[in-house]
Design brief:
Elements lengths: L2 H21 L1 H10 L1 H33 L1
Helix pairs in contact: 1-2, 1-3, 2-3
Length: about 70
């Protein structure tokens, strides 16, 4: 896995969590302030999913670019 894949996944997940807290403050805002363990799970779960899809996308892009050459 390339470092750019990890970085993009991290930034996308951070934006996803921030947007969720801004758009749904009654649900995510209270959860984000009251329980630190929930905040960690709230970030870690989506991060693993986004990282998996970024990794698969990286593999597909690299295979397609190698096929063209």
């Amino acid at each position: 896995m390339k470092w750019i894949t990890f970085t993009v996944a991290f930034v996308l997940t951070a934006c996803l969590i921030i947007a969720g807290v801004v758009l749904y403050p009654n649900i995510f805002g209270q959860a984000a302030t009251s329980n630190n363990q929930f905040v960690f799970t709230l970030f870690l779960g989506p991060f693993c999913v986004v990282l998996f899809f970024a990794w698969v996308s990286e593999k597909v892009i690299l295979k397609l670019s190698n096929r063209e050459e």
